[in-house]
Amino acid sequence: MTARCNVVVLISGSGSNLQALIDSTRSDDNPARIRAVISNRGDAYGLTRAQNAGIATQVLDHKAFDGREAFDAALIEAIDTFSPHLVVLAGFMRILTPTFVRHYAGRLLNIHPSLLPLYKGLHTHQRALEAGDAEHGCSVHFVTEELDGGPLVVQAIVPVQAGDTPESLAMRVHAQEHRIYPLAVRWFAEGRLCLGEHGAMLDGQPLPATGYLIRT
């Protein structure tokens, strides 16, 4: 990996994970550098977070394009302007086309609010509570064409407490998202993390199917 790892972050909303990434890359010893933040929504507060940090921003409204393929083609063009080593999805509420995913194969990360492969998709906290799970959490994974199904990098396990609501559980999970996403991005930027032929690898060794586990 080069001395600096160029990162482009894609968002759709408030950008709390983006803020965690911005904060983590302020240290001189972190080789990750966020070159740009791109949103499909002009009202996303994450754009303000990026602007406050002096990071370039761009809005690409998906509603202005004739279909998902046309939007993703324009998005690729916008991203590649910044010569990224890594593209990070931080609450980017779009299902990406296979063409997009293949273009960034091995350099596209996502974070999901569940212990994958459990609860792909939406409403993860409610679903974990309805199932009576003792543990919940969040996962960072490489993105593949399977929705929320790429090789796992790191997961944080959060105990479910008596009386938890989806909101209280979400707060504790979010706190761990802000911990593990910067960690995974830093691993990649340092050249420690990569996507191998058989899954995610850290320091030259295959990660387990669960990824690197952190218990809270």
TrEMBL record:
This enzyme's EC code(s): 2.1.2.2
Binding site for (6R)-10-formyltetrahydrofolate: 68, 93-96, 110
GO CC annotations on file: cytosol
GO molecular function: phosphoribosylglycinamide formyltransferase activity
Residues at the catalytic site: 112 (proton donor)
Xref: CDD domains: FMT_core_GART
Catalytic activity line of the entry: N(1)-(5-phospho-beta-D-ribosyl)glycinamide + (6R)-10-formyltetrahydrofolate = N(2)-formyl-N(1)-(5-phospho-beta-D-ribosyl)glycinamide + (6S)-5,6,7,8-tetrahydrofolate + H(+)
InterPro entries for this protein: Formyl_transf_N, Formyl_transf_N_sf, GART, GART_AS
UniProt KW Isomerase keyword: no
Protein's pathway: Purine metabolism; IMP biosynthesis via de novo pathway; N(2)-formyl-N(1)-(5-phospho-D-ribosyl)glycinamide from N(1)-(5-phospho-D-ribosyl)glycinamide (10-formyl THF route): step 1/1
Stated role: Catalyzes the transfer of a formyl group from 10-formyltetrahydrofolate to 5-phospho-ribosyl-glycinamide (GAR), producing 5-phospho-ribosyl-N-formylglycinamide (FGAR) and tetrahydrofolate.
PANTHER family: PHOSPHORIBOSYLGLYCINAMIDE FORMYLTRANSFERASE (PTHR43369:SF2)
Protein name listed in UniProt: Phosphoribosylglycinamide formyltransferase
Organism from which the protein derives: Pseudomonas indica
